[in-house]
Design goal:
Elements: H1 2-15, H2 17-31, E1 34-38, E2 43-49, E3 66-78, E4 81-88, E5 100-102, E6 110-114, H3 120-126, E7 131-137, E8 144-153, E9 160-163, E10 166-169, E11 177-180, E12 193-200, E13 204-226, E14 236-248, E15 254-263, E16 337-339, E17 346-350, E18 353-357, E19 362-364, E20 368-389, E21 411-422, E22 436-442, E23 449-456, E24 464-484, E25 488-497, E26 503-509, E27 519-522, E28 525-532, E29 537-545
Length: about 550
């Protein structure tokens, strides 16, 4: 065919050059621009940003709700003239409107995020109203036969094919059936793809960079704090270790990537929803293959009882037909955590944000999580306190206009224990602490055991660091009313310590508590701080004024 075209062009050029040019333009219009496929990047940089609205919740395993800025370096050869470049293997969560391609001779004239993927679903969709080969087992002879078929409907909800025997539902005979296709359509890819249109005056090989934002990523810090013995000054020394946990919820792995994580909350506007990939398995719905007398239309009971429709069944009945079972392919599990490298992520400043860079290339696996060491601090000074607050404001409950009377009784509550330190270098820290989950371990004769789990918000250098554990039944606060009038309420607070060591307590009081011995100011609040001896108790009597909000 090509030889005939060349001969025709040579003939036209000899007889009439203008006619040859017209024919060439016609052939170009029929064939369209050249298609260039870039199937994989040579280098990838991934900067992952946390979901700013996730709070203390863990990373969503099904679809992480943060985002990433991805930069891919690719080398491609483009022909002269107009061409379509298909960048395969981009993240399925790509926001196409953010894509930037640099390094092309004449830039980009058009870009498209292609959502049609190579899959059973995608092939049926691409071959709709086209001929395929249908191989199936003959119900009479048991032999396999192959016939031509036309796909007339599908792929959602079922596939209808037209054969010489008429219209049939695909894979609904109960016997093996399969379809064969003439080839893979040029616009169907096994990976999410971004296609662009560009032009070049000459054929050339260029190195381009593709940069885009993508959903489906997230990261957080995961801290492990191991407590230590208390010193004579009441200060303990423990160790703090942190993982940088990153998650990729997409179906694309990024091999040998330069990985970074960004701490802080940059101003980011909402993006359009990423396009959904039209791929996956077929969902085939078929009419039941039983006879109508084999399909029960009402509930049967083996004891001969009457059903909801008033029917009566004999006491002896065959076993009822089992309910249909839905078969579902599950996505890859997120439970597999990959720990990589012994080197620690390096912290850098990024404006008002903090950047944590993994010093070696790593693979960010599809639908997986990866952990990289974030920090190791072996000599962290802290105090352990038991904290609580008055459960009510201290106001008495009495009818309007009536004289104050006692209506309350003693109230008791467990105190929370808290690890409290200062984010300073002299206290063993002195570095930014990104928000994340904290697991607290305490030493025992069996080794470190989990004592509690908590969370930590972003802490800058110089900030207080407070990690709250669970409530302790060993340290109890009792609130006892003493007297009351229209201007003041008086309470006695007692903390009982059932532990075999002294404990420090800090009880938050209403802001209108009068300053007295043992009561100090803490910002706009009042607090009671004390040391409660081992197997002992400590008490204080406080007065709350009723001339302001408490």
């Amino acid at each position: 065919m090509m030889r005939l075209i060349l001969l025709a062009l040579a003939f036209c050029a000899a007889a009439a050059p203008a006619a040859a040019q017209d024919l060439l333009r016609q052939l170009e219009a029929e064939t369209g621009p050249a298609i260039v496929v870039s199937d994989t990047p040579e280098a990838v940089n991934i900067a992952i940003y946390r979901d700013p609205y996730r709070g203390d919740d863990p990373i969503d395993r099904e679809w992480p709700t943060g985002y990433a800025l991805i930069t891919e370096t690719r080398t491609i050869t483009i022909p002269a003239g107009e061409s379509v470049i298909r960048f395969e293997g981009v993240s399925e969560g790509m926001f196409p409107e953010t894509a930037i391609v640099t390094g092309l001779p004449k830039g980009v004239t058009e870009k498209n995020r292609d959502g049609r993927l190579l899959s059973p679903y995608g092939l049926v969709d691409a071959y709709l109203k086209r001929r395929v080969k249908l191989t199936r087992t003959n119900t009479a002879t048991g032999q396999s036969t192959t016939d031509d078929a036309l796909i007339t409907a599908g792929p959602a909800g079922g596939v209808i094919v037209q054969t010489s025997a008429g219209f049939e539902a695909y894979q609904c005979t109960g016997l093996p059936e399969r379809m064969s296709y003439g080839g893979v359509p040029s616009n169907l890819s096994a990976k999410p793809t971004l296609s662009i249109i560009t032009e070049s005056d000459v054929a050339t090989t260029v190195t381009v960079q593709l940069t885009y934002m993508a959903a489906g990523f997230d990261w957080q810090a995961n801290y492990i704090f191991e407590t230590g013995p208390k010193g004579k000054d009441g200060v303990s020394t423990g160790s703090l270790f942190a993982w940088m946990t990153v998650a990729n919820g997409g179906k694309q792995s990024f091999d040998n990537a330069y990985l970074m994580a960004i701490a802080g909350e940059p101003n980011k506007e909402e993006n359009a929803d990423p396009p959904e990939d039209a791929g996956g398995a077929l969902s085939l719905n078929c009419w039941p293959q039983q006879r109508t007398d084999q399909v029960p239309y009402r509930q049967t009971w083996a004891d001969g009882s009457i059903d909801a429709y008033g029917g009566y069944y004999p006491a002896v009945m065959p076993a009822p037909m089992a309910a249909p079972v839905e078969m579902r392919m599950e996505a890859a599990s997120y439970d597999s955590v990959v720990v990589t490298g012994s080197r620690i992520a390096e912290q850098e400043d990024l404006g008002d944000l903090k950047l944590y860079r993994v010093p070696e290339r790593v693979t960010v696996n599809a639908q997986g999580q990866k952990q990289v060491a974030l920090m190791v601090q072996d000599e962290v000074r802290y105090r352990r306190l038991y904290t609580g607050a008055m459960r009510r404001s201290g106001r008495w409950d009495y009818p309007r206009g009536a004289e104050p009377v006692y209506t309350g009784t003693e109230r008791t509550s467990y105190l929370d224990w808290q690890i409290r330190g200062l984010n300073e270098k002299r206290d063993g820290l002195g570095l930014p602490l990104p928000s994340g989950q904290v697991a607290i371990y305490e030493g025992s004769r069996f080794g470190p055991l989990l004592a509690g789990e908590s969370s930590l918000t972003d802490r800058a250098i110089g900030d207080d660091v407070e990690i709250t554990g669970e409530s302790s039944a060993d340290v109890v606060l009792t609130e006892t009313p003493v007297k009351s009038d229209k201007k003041r309420h008086t309470w006695t607070l007692t903390v009982t310590n059932a532990r075999a060591e002294d404990v420090e307590i800090e009880i938050l009081l209403p802001s209108t508590t009068e300053i007295s011995k043992g009561v100090t100011r803490k910002k706009s609040k009042r607090v009671w701080r004390a040391v409660v001896p081992a197997n002992g108790k400590a008490s204080i009597t406080i007065t709350i004024r009723m001339d302001g909000q408490s």
